[in-house]
Predict the 3D structure of the following.
Amino acid sequence: MDGLLFRSAEELFTRHATPEAVRAIRAGGPASALWGEIEASGFLEALVPEEAGGAGIGPPEILPVLLAAGRFALPLPIAETMLARAALVATGETPPEGAIALAEPAGEHMARLAPGQPADWVLLPQGETALLLPWDKAEPDTDASSALADLLRWPAGTGRSLACPDLLAAGAWAEVAIMAGAMERILEDTVRHARDRQQFGRPIAAFQAIQQQISVLTEDVFASRMAAQLASVPDGKGIAGLNPTRIATAKLRVGEAAVRVCAIAHAVHGAMGITEELDLHLLTARLQVGRMRFGGEAHWAHWLGRQFLAGDLTETLAFVRAHLGPVAPEATA
Amino acid sequence: MIGALPLAAIPPEDEALRPEIRDFLRETVPVIPPERRARSWMGFDADFSRKLAERGWLGLTFPKEYGGAGRGPFARYVLAEELLASGAPVSAHWIADRQSGPLIHRFGTEEQRRFYLPRICRAEAFFCIGMSEPNTGSDLASVTTRAVRDRDGWRLNGAKIWTTNAHRSHYMIALVRTSGTPQDRHKGLSQVIVDLKAPGVRISPIRDLAGDAHFSEVVFEDVVLPADALIGEESSGWMQVNAELAFERSGPERVLSSAVLLDTWAQWLREAGAHQAAETLLGRLIAHLAVLRAMSIAVTSRLVEGESPVVEAALVKDLGTEFEQLIPTVIADILASPGQVAPGPLMRTLAYTTAMAPSFSLRGGTREILRGMIARGMGLR
């Protein structure tokens, strides 16, 4: 599906989101060159309706671009900007220029964000509304920040309040897509390493213990890709038709997978995988961050379990058929 | 590397079958206690199979000229989902409908099709599959049961074991050696249909750890088989066996074996109230179910399009059976709260599913064999 979008995204990131560029931005270097290329691609207007000047395509169609971003551990909020622009346009606002990060509320005028992923703006949910905040007015809370989350604080009175529901589920969808893409690249890199690396006079891929582990890794990567596809079916009332029941399902399934994927990929790569030099940690770190953003496994599992128990359908299969069924892309186009 | 699995949906014309099936099951199945429904596709009830046959639901995928409904695999998928989710006792006809019938249709002669397929559709011919032997398990190519040419037909000697339903089936399709030796591996293997009432066939049921006798040992002593016992080409047995497996490995029976336990527990939560840990666990299991179902449907769709996604089917089976085994494990944990008393039917359902769960990742190819197939698909071996 949508091989064209995927290929053009892959080409763009191959050229401009090299491991060196990714490392530089993560370390606090300028992101404007890479962001300019992404802006020029038009991807960021994907979810904005055509009548509002966007591309008017849906989550299933843009998913391959986000998977590609995940494959490169892109350190910029591409999915979040797409969602923010669509959400702002839907409420009659004109989105500001530049990158918009989706944040999780972390207290009074405090936002929790993905570390090493700069933006120009931050959209911070406040119940049924959201604050649009300028990044450059923020002060980092270094004590509360970590490699898993950056915490930023704004002076009281900063930013503009906008009507903007559904941001938490939308943010979780963005993480699902990026993580599923990162996992695909991890699988490819791990398979290649297992075939190249020689021990005991043969490639470590020749050992059943390694084969079995990589098979489990493969299963989780395929399940995560499927979860991302299921979460992208636009049959809900959220931004671009996103459906929180689907996103809950995918976020928890992908989060579970991320734990095993990181463990197996690192086990196969051995000490080499722990080095700064190898790119593996760019991807596994992104998974660790993504797993903790916009609700983890337990959060969404609890939400989904309550959803089921509050509904009329008493059989799990009936619930899955009614709310979580696969819908082929052509049926929604 | 293996390709991605695009999202695929069950076609509307096949979905349309579901309401009628659900109505039928609502009338016939709830009277069976959950601990019996937990037997899933191991629950044997020939009368129930005949009732399904009367509805025209056996051999859904067989052509009409052989008594079938001429429907596609997704019609059978819908039927299988509903039967398994409800815990209907489908074992009697399950193997014939899923595997033996399609095999006969694909590789059999016109005479064989005309003889067997209508009988399968009428629930008059139940089948079992003779694969494992006392010294042949996962290494299936090492079978030693042998059929030798004898006048117009064959003479069969050897033994099969762990054969599900052998003692209550009419026929066995057995994988046997017709030439060469076990050292020749895949070469020289053929499939033959054995009438289990033939002289020289001795069947001994084996009691399983749950107290049922669902499988048997079958010994063949100079069993005379007619010439037309051979199915397909001589020496093509290995290829034919493998052709059967993709459908078998990716279907709903690799996801729903513990569905009765899951739903019985969920129903009790609804009635007795759920605490946060139970709600969380339930949500987790529902998420797994949804993703697995989408994967299973995606693989089925590839099969319908004539592809042979053997590795993808192995992925579904390994993940699906892991899910089926997870259900009793985590439900046991959550029911083990001090002071909490779960109802007897729920506990008996849990007890049965817990005891039989290890078999979920043995039948139809062990977990280790499947993972070896996936590794091969990924270019590791």
Q: What stands out?
A: The first strand of chain A starts at residue 100 and ends at 102.
